[in-house]
């Protein structure tokens, strides 16, 4: 089965539309799954002081029509966590964010956002918290990376890399600004790093 894995959209409707168009062209049969940070929180982490806002709209970048593009399941990211931390009232968009899971599965693979572990400590965190997971896809750092059995492997766009017979951690990159995503073939046990063209 084919999976188109994408994340770190940060409310960038134009970049998301470009990636979705490329997915429709390159892998129309693929099941889409997100790795979180669908929306951008407009209150930065350093500006958190226990304040609460009356509506989600006061703390979210929310371009018209973007909600309709989120037709795929996704994990939550740190942006969704912050939006929930700053609001408490019931409203449809908050309920949607609150219902996003921490992890999702794509056949034998696990998807998670990646903000759960300290910088450059994915391997140790995953070994402790998801020890049975042989293949993990994540986002968060906005950098496409491929790590096999603890060793970083250089990537090339649109070239297949095997994930068979190894513990593999894949950062799917960021939709925002970079228009990156990953195509995972669970039968062939391969991934391809993809990048939609700009403009």
Q: Roughly how many Å apart are the termini?
A: 30 Å
- What structural class do helix, strand and pairing data support? alpha+beta
**Topology pattern, helix = H, strand = E:** EHEEEHHEEHEEEEEEE
Radius of gyration: 17 Å
Q: In one word, what is the shape? A: globular
Strand sequence of the main sheet, in spatial order? 5-6-7-11-8-9
Task: Please count the helical segments.
Answer: 4
The level of helicity is: 10-25%
Largest sheet: 6 strands, mixed
Uncertain residue segments: none
Beta content: 25-35%
The chain-level mean pLDDT equals 96
What's the count of strands?
13
In short:
The chain has 199 residues and is an alpha+beta fold. 19% of the residues lie in helices and 26% in strands.
């Amino acid at each position: 089965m084919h999976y188109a894995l994408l994340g770190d959209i940060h409310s960038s409707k134009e970049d998301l539309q470009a990636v979705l168009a490329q997915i429709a062209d390159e892998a129309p049969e693929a099941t889409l799954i997100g790795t979180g940070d669908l929306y951008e929180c407009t209150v930065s982490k350093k500006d958190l002081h226990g304040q609460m806002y009356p509506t989600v709209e006061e703390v979210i970048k929310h371009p018209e029509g973007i909600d309709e593009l989120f037709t795929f399941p996704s994990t939550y990211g740190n942006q969704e966590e912050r939006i929930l931390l700053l609001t408490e009232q019931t409203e449809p968009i908050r309920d949607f964010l609150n219902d996003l899971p921490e992890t999702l599965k794509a056949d034998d693979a696990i998807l998670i956002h990646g903000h759960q572990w300290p910088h450059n400590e994915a391997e140790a965190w995953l070994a402790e918290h998801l020890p049975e997971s042989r293949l993990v896809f994540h986002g968060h750092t906005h950098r496409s990376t491929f790590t096999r059995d603890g060793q970083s492997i250089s990537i090339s766009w649109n070239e297949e890399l095997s994930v068979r017979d190894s513990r593999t951690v894949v950062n799917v990159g960021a939709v925002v600004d970079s228009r990156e995503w990953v195509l995972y073939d669970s039968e062939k046990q391969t991934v391809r790093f993809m990048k939609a063209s700009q403009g």
